[in-house]
Amino acid sequence: MQHGSPYGTHRVLEPLGVLPQGAWKIDNSMALYDNEILIDVAVLNIDAASFTQIKREAADDRASIASIVRGIVERRGKHHNPVTGSGGMLIGRVAEIGPALTDKVDLRVGDRIATLVSLSLTPLQITTIKEVHLDRDQIEVEAQAILFETGLYAKLPGDIPEKVALAILDVAGAPAQTARLVRPGDTVVVVGGGGKSGTLCVYEARKRAGPAGRVIGVSPFARDCERMRKLGWVDHALQVDATDAVAMMDAIARVTAGRMADVVINCVNIQNTEMGSILAARDRGKVYFFSMATSFTAAALGAEGVGKDVDMIVGNGYARDHALFALALLRESPKLRQLFEAWYV
User: Fold this and answer.
1) Which of the listed CATH numbers 3.30.2350.20, 3.30.310.50, 3.40.50.720, 3.40.190.10 matches domain 173-344?
2) What is the pTM of this model?
3) Sequence ranges of the domains in the chain
4) Which of 2, 157, 168, 327 is the most exposed place for a label (fewest CB within 10 A)?
5) Hey, is 109 helix, strand or coil?
6) For the residues of 258-315, what is the DSSP string, one character each?
């Protein structure tokens, strides 16, 4: 067996000299290097921004979605959406562990794991697409993938259904970063508060802001707003289209008496919500862009253009122990667990 780079650069085909995530194409042959892990893949959890774009391109037709996903993987050696630049993650079973890693990882052949690194850098070969789930961004497959030496993973827990765990782990960074950002008494706006990552952020923001704080959920959909109200973790559920920046600003101003938000968390899966998020924040407030649909050029230049002095935070999907943190939320909140099981089981 050959020895590869711990970062997977030995798999890069074009352009040479970049890391796998930034590469246009990588080697997705399943011949293992001695410091790689081979995974038999069961489910792909496609990034929300990517899946939304693919569904639109395919007009919600499952066969067309499958064809698009297969085409991306065949061209690039990985599921790296060329439009959104994002990927997703997977669950599967460990098929083989390279001999250089056997004493370095807490895994055995047969263990069920979820990868915590993006599909946009993961060598992937799809044999069969078995089912496309339009309502939960997941695709059941027969496939194999490679995890590099530095690749993050989580063993799947025995007390949480696998597809629920995958959905939670895919967005585990969002509630973990929310816990770091929100302080007691803060006013927090969660843009996309009715979705998967948004619901976790609303729940965590409610805990962190406490009784003196306020949590405001935003969604353009009436059903999301009604769900947020029923769950009881928001002070206001606002039906606003976040792509309309002025409407967002006005709506947040109305419910905060013009003070605006201390923290804005953007979890949406569509483009052009940067300015709505920025204008919802107070001066010297914080805006956390978790969404992979974010244009950071638009955010930076837009904030400058309106003279808004806010701290903007890149949506790093990783925080130390974020997987354990996110799964613990389901264990501590029966309402949260019931909701996710209704969505994903």
Assistant:
1) 3.40.50.720
2) 0.85
3) 9-156, 173-344
4) 2
5) coil
6) T--EEEEEE--SSSS-HHHHHHHEEEEEEEEE--TT--HHHHHHHHHHTT---EEEE-
Catalogue the E-assigned strands of 77-161.
Answer: 88-97, 112-115, 124-133, 138-147, 153-155
Q: Encode the chain (345 residues) as per-residue pLDDT tens digits.
A: 899 999 999 999 999 999 999 999 999 999 999 999 999 999 999 998 899 999 999 999 999 999 999 999 999 999 999 999 999 999 999 999 999 999 999 999 999 999 999 999 999 999 999 999 998 899 999 999 999 999 999 999 999 998 899 889 989 999 999 999 999 999 999 999 999 999 999 999 999 999 999 999 999 999 999 999 999 999 999 999 999 999 999 999 999 999 999 999 999 988 999 999 999 999 999 999 998 888 989 999 999 999 999 999 988 778 889 999 999 999 999 999 999 999 988
Which residue matches tokens 């949406």?
268
Give me the amino acid identity at 292: M
